[in-house]
Amino acid sequence: MKVIIEELLNSALEYLFEGFSIIPVALIKLPDGKSRKPALVDWKKYQHHLPTLEEVKGWFSNPEQFEAIRNGNKLGIAIITGKISQNLAVVDFDSQDVLLEVLRELRTKSPEIYEKLIRTWIVETGKGFHYYLRVRDPDPKLFNNRIGIRLGVDIRAEGGYVVAPPSPHPSGKRYTFIEKPERIQELTWEEYLTLLRILEGDKESRESLKQARESEESKEREGDKKLSESEVLEIVNLLRPIYRPGYRNYVILFLSGWLRKAGIDYSSARKVVEILADGDEEKDLRLYVLDRTYGKRGTPPSDEELKGKSGLQEIAEKLLGEFQSLELIRKLEEKLGRSSPFMDSVFSLIDFSRKLYYVANPRKGIIARAYEDPKNGGIVYKELIAETCPVRVVVYDDTLGGVRKFEIEFDGLLKKTIGPAELEIITQRLKSDGVVKHKRLIEDALSSLVIAFIRNGKAEIRRELEKPGFYFFEGQIKPVKWEAEEFTKGDLRTSLLLLDELRREWYNHLAERFTTVIKWGILAPFSYAIKQIRGTYGIHFPWLLLHGSSNTGKSTLGKIIRAMWNLPPEEKSGKHIDTVPRFGEKVSRSTFPVLINEVADILAKDSIKEVLKSSIESMFARGRYVQGVYVEEPALSPMIFTTNKTYPSDDALLRRFVGILFTISDRVTGEEVSKFERKVLPRIYDLRFLGYFVFKRIAENPELLKKDWLEVSTTLLREAFEFAELEVPSWIDEEHEGESLEEITEIINEEIRARLLEDVNQRYSRHISKVEVYVEDGTYYAPKLKHRLEALLKENFIPWASLKGDDEVVITNSVLKVLDGLAVDSLKSLAERFNWEYKNVKINGKQGKRIVVPLSDFVAFLEGSGAEKSDKVIMEVNSQ
Questions:
Q1: Is the pLDDT confidence value at 61 over 80?
Q2: Sheet containing strand 837-843, strands side by side
C-alpha cells in the first residue's frame, strides 16, 4: 500500500509540474458492477487555479484523511480538463469496439486528425481508452463536456475531469499509458469542431441503435423491468380463461419461468400471481412456485428440468382451441417483450397494417404465415410454408468479423439438426428434404423467425474462433487449431544449438540481419494478439520485407520462421495477393506468417498498398458484402515479402516494414545451397521447440505483448538459452536498424553500375584481341574506360548498347538481361533512376523507346567513385 501511495504521489507531482490541475478521487466499485469516481475535495475551485505543492503532498501522503478511503475504497489521481490544464480535452471510449469504429471513420474522413489521435497520449482504462488532446484557442462557450456525443464516447473538456495513470481502476486493473510521446497532440479549433461533427454523426440513427442495445441489455438482465398496474392487469386478464382447476400449478410454473426470462422484476411478477390466484385456496403454493423460480425459496428449476416443456400453449389449446391459444401466446409475447422460453409458438410480425405474422408452431411442427382476425379474434393461418418447425437455434458469431452461421434443430415432418451453416444453405437443405410447401416464402420466413429467436432470447449465441493461430481472448492467449508438444530442456537445447549454428556458420555474412529476422519470427504469430491487446491503430508489429539481389536465400529465411512454429514450408507467389479480394482471403486465413515471393509489381498497386497499410496497423484488412451483409475481413497473418526487383519507393509504406536489404555480396553459390539442403534442412523442424517455449512464456504472461516487439523477442531468446542451461550467445543482442530510402537507392545504384562495368570489361577482354599497352613502373595498364567502351560500341560488341553519332550512347531493353536479379524492372525505370533521357529512337531502321545518354556522362557513371581502379584493370591479353 505504501509503495502505491508513493507512486501516486510522485505521479501527481509530475502532472502538477507539467501544468495539469489535479485532484484526489475515490474509486468505488458498486454492487451492480459499475463504478463511481467522486472527487475527495471541492474540485470546482481547481478549475480556476492549480493546487499548491503542499496541497498535493497533503492529499496523497495521507489518504486516510478521507472517509471514502477509510471505508476501503481506492485512491486515485484525476486531471481536471479544460482551460486550467492548458486547454486539455480527453476523448473517452467505453470499449475497444467503439474505438476502432471511430478510428476507421476518422482515417477515412479526416486523416490529419486521425494521425494526431494515434500519436498522442493514450491511456488504457478498465475496458476502454482515454485519448488526450490540446485545443488551440477554443471558444469558451463550446469547449465543454459532451457526454454521450456518440454511443460509448464522451468528451471531457471544460467542467470535467478524468482519472489518470497510475491510478487503480475499480475493476482491479490500473489506468496505464499505452502511448506517451513527449507532448500531447494539439488540434486547431477548426479540427476540434470537425472531430465533434464526425463523432456526432447521424444522431437519429445512433439514438435508435442506443435504444435497441439498451433494450437488448435490459432483456439479458433478469429482474430489472417493472410492470405498470395496467400491464399487470392486462396479463392477468389474458390468463384468466386458462387459470382453471387442474391446470393452475402448471400455468404459474410456465408463467413464472417466462416472466423471469423476460427480465420482469420479482415484485411485478408477484403482483401478477397474487391477483391471478386471488380466491385460490392454494394461493400459497402458487407463490412458492414463483419464489422457487426466482430463487427466493427452495432450488430454482434448472434449464434441463424445463427443457422440452410445451408451456402455456398446450394448456390454452386444450381449453380455448388452437387459434385462440395462438392469439394468447402472441399477446403475452407482445406484453413481455420476449418469446416463451418453453415449446410455445414463436411469432415474427412482418406487416404492421395487415397484422401479418410468420409463426413457428412446435405443437403442429409447421412454419406458417398467419394474420390476426379483427372480428372474431385469434390467429388464423394464411399459408403453410413448411411442414417442419425450428425449435432450437444456435448462432455462431465469428468474433473476427466473419459471416454468422446457424445451427437449427427442426421438429415436425423433418426431425433433423442442420448446420452450422449460412441460412441460405439451410433453406436449400429444407427444400431438398421435401418439407417446403411455399418456396418463395421459406427463406424470408426462416430468416424472420431466426431473428425472433435471437431478439427474444430463445437463441443460444456462441462466439468461437475457427481460424488457426493465437488470439487474445478473455484475458488469455488462446491457441486455435495449433497445439504445442511437451518438450524437455534437451529438446530446447537441440533447437537453440541449431539456431546458433545457423547464425554462426550459415548466416554469419548476414550478421544482425539474420538475428533480426529470427526475432521477428519469434513474435510473428502473435501479431494479431498484439493488435487486440493494444486496441489502437498503429504500427505495433511491422511486416517483413526481404529485398535485393537474387540467390541470397531470402525465401529460405521465411521457411526457417515457419519451421519454428512447426508449419509446412508453404510459399506463394505475388499473384496470390494481386487483387484486393485475393489479398483479403490470404491475410485472413490464420495468424501465422505467410511467405509471399516476388511482390514488386504488387507493391506498386495503389489498391493493394492501401489494404496492406490497413492490415498492418489495424485488426481488419477490408470490408465487403456477403449475402447483403457488410462484414470485415480480419488482418490475421503477418506477411514475409521477398522481391528481387524494385523495392517500394513509398516512404509511408516502408515505415510499416522491417526492411532487410540483400546485396550481390550476399549471394550464395549452388554448392553452398546443396550443402545447406543436405546438412541443415533435414533438421530444420528441430526449431519448433523454440516456438513451443515462446508460446508457453507468452501464454503465462500476455502482458509481454504490450512491450516493443524487439525487446520482447530478445528477452525470450535470452530466457530460452538460460532455461536450456546454455551460454547466452552475444549475437542475441544484435538488431538491424535498417536502411533509409536514400541508402537503399545508393546501394542498388552501385550494384547496377558494377554489373554494367563488369559486362563491359568482360566483353572487352573477350572481343578485343590486340590491345596497345604501355609500361609504367613495370605495370601493364589497359586503355582508359572511355576508349574501351568506344571500341566495343564501334564494333557492335555490346548487344544492349550502340553508338549514335560520336557522342551519344543508346541503351536498349537487352540491358535488362544483364541486370537480371537487381532492382530494375523496366528500361523506363532504369532511365528514371539515373535521370537519363527516355525517348523514341530509330536503331537499324526500327523505331522504339530507348535510353539516350551522352557518352561522357555514361563513362562517368561507369567509373563511379572508383575511376582509377576501373582504369587499372589488368587485362589478360589473348596471345593467339
A1: yes
A2: 801-804, 808-811, 846-854, 837-843
Strands (E), 47-174: 74-80, 88-93, 122-124, 129-135, 146-150, 153-156, 161-164
Contacts of residue 712, Cβ cutoff 8 Å, sequence gap at least 6:
523, 704, 705
Distance (Å, whole) CA 483 – CA 746: 46
Phi, psi dihedrals of residue 595, rounded to the nearest 5°:
-95, 120
Q: With residue 804 as reference, give the H or E element that holds it.
A: strand 801-804
The pTM score is 0.52
Q: If we measure between CA atoms, which residue out of 228, 250, 396 comes closest to residue 315? A: 250
DSSP 8-state class, residue 378: S
Q: Is it the case that residue 262 has pLDDT exceeding 70?
A: yes
Residue 643, CB-side half-sphere exposure with 13 Å CA sphere: 20
Could you tell me the three cell numbers for 665? 555480396
As given in the structure block, the three cell numbers for residue 710 are 524487439
pLDDT band at 216 (very low <50, low <70, confident <90, very high): very low
For residue 254, the surrounding DSSP H or E stretch is helix 248-261
**Residue of 125, 114, 187, 124 lying closest to 157 (CA atoms):** 187
Average pLDDT, the chain: 84
How many C-alpha atoms does 870 have within 13 Å on its Cβ side?
Answer: 26
Reduced to 3 states (helix: H, G, I; strand: E, B; else coil), residue 187 is strand
**Residues near 553 by Cβ (< 8 Å), separated by ≥ 6?**
507, 666, 668, 673
For 465-509, list the strands marked E by DSSP. 469-473, 476-480
- Which cell is 699 given? 501464454
